[in-house]
Amino acid sequence: AVYDLGGGTFDITILEIDDGLFEVKSTNGDTFLGGEDFDMRIVNYLADEFKKEHGVDLTKDKMALQRLKEAAEKAKIELSSSQQTEINQPFISMDMKSGTPLHMVMKLTRAKLESLVGDLIKKSLKPCDSALKDAGISKGDIDEVVLVGGMTRMPKVIEEVTNFFGKEPHKGVNPDEVVALGAAIQAGVLQGDVKDVVLLDVTPLSL
């Protein structure tokens, strides 16, 4: 099973491999689920907290919103290896009454992040069920689970995927590089440099 949670979309593929023959048994996913959705949960949380404290809505300010998006992505990445991170955005807005600058200094914990995005992770499991059903197999038939995409570095994602499939994901591939490696192998096949690999794919979406 290839669990691919990217920046904008989610895909799950059930693949059968036999002596150089790679056959896609089924594929499913959600074209509206990805890392950007996780980032926006953090952005909205930060904006809400800032509004409560200062009465200023940062989502109405394009520059401030862009800074929040960048800070949210950075915090999300840091919380994959730390339990807590600080979001520090000086001069992010202005107090309209006094004319003094406003700064954002907030702490975000991994636990808080997980509570903000928990339903998004759960949302990725429904297509997994559908893909297994389409392939006509059960979770117990899956030999390996391969994680693809930077989002799969999030500990909560790994935990949920492990619980769903009943086994820990394969750790032999870099989730950020695996797509490029696959593309390179496929290019080698098309050029004739790689001889012993055949891919039988399916059309993932209706034409």
Describe the protein:
The protein has about 210 residues and is an alpha/beta fold. The protein has two domains: about 1-35 and about 125-200, ATPase, nucleotide binding domain (Nucleotidyltransferase, domain 5), CATH 3.30.420.40; about 35-115, Actin, Chain A, domain 4. The chain is about 40% helix and about 25% strand. It is built from six helices and seven strands. Strands 6-1-2-3-7 form a five-stranded mixed beta sheet. A two-stranded antiparallel sheet has the order 4-5. Strand 2 and strand 3 (about 20-30) form a beta hairpin. Helix 1 crosses helix 3 (about 110-125). It is elongated and about 70 Å long. It starts with a strand and ends in a 7-residue tail after the last strand. The mean pLDDT is about 95.
